[in-house]
Amino acid sequence: MTVDTLRLSAEEANGLLTRREASSDEIYRAYLDAIGERDPELHAFLYVCENDPGEGIPIAVKDVIGTRGIPTTAGSKILESYIPVYDSTVIANCRERGLRVIGKTNTDEFAMGSSTENSAFGPSHNPWDPSRVPGGSGGGSAAAVSAGLAPWALGSDTGGSIKQPAALCGHVGLRPTYGTVSRYGVVAFASSLDQVGPVARNVRDCAFLYSVISGRDENDSTTVDVPAVELPTAEDLKGLRIGVPKEMNGAAGIEGGVTAAVQSALELAESLGASVEECSLPRSVDYGVACYYLVAPAEASANLARYDGVRYGLRDDGADFREMVMKTRDAGLGDEPKRRIMIGAYALSAGYYDAYYGTAQKVRTVIKREHDALFERFDVLVSPTSPTVAFPIGAKIDDPVAMYMNDVLTIPSCMAGLPGLNIPCGLSEGLPVGLQLIGPQFGENTIFRAAHALEQAIGFDVVPERLR
What we know:
- It is a single chain.
- Strands 1-3-2-4-6-5-10-11-9-7-8 form an eleven-stranded mixed sheet, sandwiched between helices.
- It is built from 14 helices and eleven strands.
- Helices cover 37% and strands 13% of the residues.
- The chain is an alpha/beta fold.
């Protein structure tokens, strides 16, 4: 039979297998053919697996997630030749369910970026308009799902790297509660923030993939047992209390078309029975980005110290150890990792630790408490996911501050360790607009229920117009 990869959801693909209307190999081959046809324009993949063991459906994997026997580069020249000898826990969980890795997707180097332009192997392109970015750092996974190159994918999110690309490419992406998904075998960026999560075409697929990868892992001491995942079926929002932080809705820097699409979604939520009320997150929004860009680079400077040319990855010769390390890092790391390592090393240096990193951790506690206070009144907080739709490739790459502000709406909940999910809620200038739903700690089921009901009511067509 013909497999329409542009329209097929993961749930539907699994149904084909269950009913024996298509074999695993036939489905896998259909996606390989789609990659061969459409990926030369999009550059969503850094490595494609011509055949991977398993009896289930394919999954694309962000190239910061370790895969045994398959290159894992983190989008960096310094790891260009690195092939892990073991699977990360999330990949092991996927393999236990029969999922087959179809390839490794492009990413900003070490997941540091908001456009995938920082990849050492070139940028990915947005399937809705290839002249625009797909978001970042997980733009490769986002582009792959959006263009029908994989039914779903895994991404990682530190400050918005799942949610923001999902918004710009027009599909669903979940950053889970910190600690619900193992980080074992995942290339570290900022360990107190990094979290692996699902990228999918719809909310039910997203919820199912989350159920596969989540749970306690003895190899990651930050993980915990999680509530049983409920696949959402709700068609209304009766009894749901939605909070709308005024600082994250209609504020300066948010495009008018984005505000309009989100407002329409909120009105639709009211018609489905939800109560919608304005609220406030003043400190979280005012200080979130500044706090993040002290905590994350500080942790990155410690994590990236392991890339010294000795143990694995690139090695450049030098007259002595010091010169070898310096030449290796100079040749192997791009501008953005170098920038963040320097920021982080400065924030952790003697005489500045308390003033910068120590203060940022105190502010992080304030951000967490501010969110917790709102969840005493509301079930879900709603805002735009990204302040803009997808912007042209090259438009912000030379302005780091402008690039960092792409995550101004996703960072606060990440700093608080809370779950957040993107669903598409409309178009602006012919490009997708993302709606962010934030829940309390371990509130994934509440988010899934709300997002599924809104998704059904909105009826957004996730297939890019140019590919229909």
